[in-house]
Amino acid sequence: MTLVIVKKYENNISISSDSRISLGEERYVDNCIKIFSIPIKIYYPTSEDGNTKLFYESRLGVAVIGSLSNAFLVKDSISEILQRVQFSPLITNTSFESIISLINLFYKKHFENFSNLRIETFFCEIIITGYCLEQKNIKGVFIVNRK
Question: pTM (2 decimals)?
Fold first, then answer.
């Protein structure tokens, strides 16, 4: 079982967790990392000459909870996706909620794929924190999918 504590104070968020990963009833490993800093890069639309200009670069705090292989697969996939986000100023925005919606699209598809395999112990929860460019403040969200 993972314990994660998220504390917001003023315009900061702190995330803490235990470091134990259980391998069944009696086996476990300590000193495991469950909190990560994931880079996010948002680009302007590609120009007519094929160039892509960076609009915004930051980092999100991510805590993973649940089945070890699933949690790390989700974390690694999110990390790859968020390094190449492109937005269209007339159609999309760069709010924290929009970024979470993008993550949720992947997360739900991943959950459906693994649920179809009928894995009884599949579950993965993630906590994501970061700066909202639109509202100019720090936000956090807890994403849960359980079979």
Answer: 0.84
pLDDT digits 0-9 by tens, 84-115: 998 888 888 889 999 999 888 888 877 777 66
Element at 97 (helix H, strand E)? helix 96-116
Q: At what angle do helices 96-116 and 68-81 cross, to 10 degrees?
A: 140
Residue 125 lies in a domain: yes
Whether residue 94 is contained in a domain is answered as yes
DSSP string, 102-141: HHHHHHHHHHHHHHHTT-TT-EEEEEEEEEETTTTEEEEE
> Which domain range does residue 130 map to?
34-146
CA distances, 136 to each of 25, 76, 94, 127, 133 (Å)? 45, 27, 11, 20, 5
Inside any domain, residue 134:
yes
Per the CB < 8 A criterion, the answer to whether 133 and 56 are in contact is yes
Return d(Cα 110, Cα 88) in angstroms, integer.
Answer: 26
With H, G, I as helix, E, B as strand and everything else as coil, classify residue 81. Answer: helix
Distances from the Cα of 39 to the Cαs of 67, 76, 78, 81, in angstroms?
23, 11, 10, 10
Residue 1 in domain: no
